[in-house]
Write a structure and sequence with these properties.
Elements lengths: L2 H16 L5 H4 L18 H5 L2 H15 L3 H12 L9 H13 L3 H22 L10
Length: about 140
């Protein structure tokens, strides 16, 4: 709901309250909103809401390390990503290992290329078949 919609709703609720309408409390509460109007908790991604473990893990670990160009964290993250390879995903582990080696060498652009190569090779199939797959426990 945009600012105008919120303003109109607040005004209508205030008018009902002034008029003494007993249902104003219920009509103006969050419970009365349709599910589309109730926003998810701040900071919650769509993937977390839908139960996509890899999405949540990537947003919480890989994205921050890459955005900060933290070479040590990137190497650790990419070594961990290699352990997430589902059966039948050729080169997943190899691409992640190449990315970890690039991070160790300090080449963040090569890390980005490794991320893109893995996403290009596996993202569509993973989303279709394995999106809800739980992640393996850390070694």
């Amino acid at each position: 709901m945009n600012w105008r919609g919120r303003w109109l709703r607040a005004r209508a609720c205030a008018a009902m309250a002034l008029a003494g309408v007993a249902l104003a409390t219920v009509a103006c509460s969050d419970e009365a909103r349709s599910p589309e109007e109730v926003a998810p908790p701040r900071g919650t991604s769509a993937g977390a809401q839908a139960g996509f473990p890899l999405h949540v893990w990537m947003k919480g670990n890989a994205a921050p390390a890459l955005s900060k160009a933290d070479k040590v964290a990137l190497e650790s993250v990419l070594r961990r990503i290699a352990t997430f390879a589902p059966p039948g995903y050729e080169r997943w582990q190899e691409i992640a290992a190449d990315g970890a080696a690039a991070a160790r060498a300090g080449d963040v652009e090569a890390v980005r290329r490794a991320c893109s190569a893995c996403h290009d090779a596996h993202r569509a199939r993973y989303r279709e078949r394995d999106r809800s797959r739980p992640l393996p426990a850390p070694p």
